[in-house]
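Per your request, structure below.
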């Protein structure tokens, strides 16, 4: 099911960019988000982590020359660090624990990179729409 979700996500991301000019938070993000739409706390934690990555890379870009591939790598690596920090802090601070985990290791960085490119609102809406469409396609195909 993961492979199918990722394939649908790649196709939707491509079509979204070609026809609407919107990036969906990375080619594979919609597929992974679609698999966890029934766990809204995990989706919210993932977007929260993406916003933290967005802020950190935005701050770094004030002092360093970060654009293109450098910005992409900064977002991915910062996403990994935020994921690690979040996974260490949440079980201690929040009694919800397992429900507040972040989806994937690189998904927050991918989403944040597109947030840096086109804005937070556009990326959030486009990625959630892609996730919803992937989830619907999986359900129609009897895979969800």
């Amino acid at each position: 099911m993961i492979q199918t979700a990722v394939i649908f996500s790649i196709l939707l991301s491509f079509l979204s960019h070609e026809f609407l000019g919107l990036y969906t938070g990375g080619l594979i993000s919609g597929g992974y988000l679609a698999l966890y739409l029934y766990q809204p706390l995990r989706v919210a934690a993932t977007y929260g982590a993406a916003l933290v990555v967005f802020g950190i890379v935005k701050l770094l870009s004030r002092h360093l020359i970060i654009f293109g591939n450098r910005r992409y790598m900064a977002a991915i690596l910062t996403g990994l660090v935020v994921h690690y920090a979040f996974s260490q802090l949440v079980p201690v601070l929040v009694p919800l624990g397992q429900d507040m985990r972040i989806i994937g290791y690189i998904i927050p960085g991918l989403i944040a990179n597109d947030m840096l490119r086109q804005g937070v609102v556009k990326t959030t809406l486009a990625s959630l729409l892609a996730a919803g469409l992937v989830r619907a396609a999986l359900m129609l195909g009897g895979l969800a």
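The chain has six helices and no strands.

Regards,
D.
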